[in-house]
Design brief:
Elements (H helix, E strand, L loop, with lengths): L4 H10 E2 L1 H6 L2 E6 L4 E7 L13 H20 L3 E2 L2 E8 L8 E11 L4 E8 L5 E9 L2 E2 L7 E2 L7
Antiparallel strand pairs: 1-10, 2-3, 3-6, 4-9, 5-8, 6-7, 7-8
Length: 155
């Protein structure tokens, strides 16, 4: 059964993988036809290096989550998307205590490999980092390892 974008947005906000919880991921918008997502993260102090910038590996994880979500949204199925390679370019530092906006897009969804990109922006819209990736779309076995988040207005 194919969900509407609104139904999918609610489901993906309330059932998240542990990494989304750890990174404080907030899914803002999605478009399944276009294969795009928009998310927000926060530059938490525990993510920072000694200069007060979010460490590159943390930024790569944010980018990877955004790209993976874009592929999942585009597929309109219950899949996982194990990454087989990625490249990240860091353009500006992401600062502690500031929102980080992620935009992910599925470039091509094939039967065996998908290609995606994602970008991170600061609150003023400056590009912080870009990821290019390929992954293997595969059916989700069972329920997967997910965390239930309360819905808006819930406890």
């Amino acid at each position: 059964m194919v969900m509407t974008d609104e139904e999918l947005l609610v489901r993906m906000r309330t059932r998240v993988p542990p990494t989304a919880q750890l990174l404080g991921q907030e899914l803002l918008a999605l478009d399944s036809r276009a294969g795009t997502v928009r998310m927000r993260f926060m530059g938490r102090p525990e993510f920072c290096n000694p200069m007060g910038h979010v460490q590159g590996g943390i930024l790569a994880a944010m980018l990877d989550d955004a790209a993976a979500c874009a592929v999942i949204v585009k597929s309109q199925r219950r899949i996982v998307v194990p990454t087989i390679e990625f490249k990240v370019s860091f353009l500006r530092p992401a600062r502690m205590g500031r929102p980080i906006i992620a935009e992910g897009r599925c470039l091509k969804l094939g039967r065996t490999v998908a290609f995606a990109e994602s970008d991170l922006f600061d609150p003023e819209g400056a590009l912080l980092a870009r990821l290019s990736t390929s992954c293997v779309p595969s059916p989700l076995e069972g329920e997967g390892l997910m965390i239930e988040r309360p819905t808006e207005g819930g406890a």
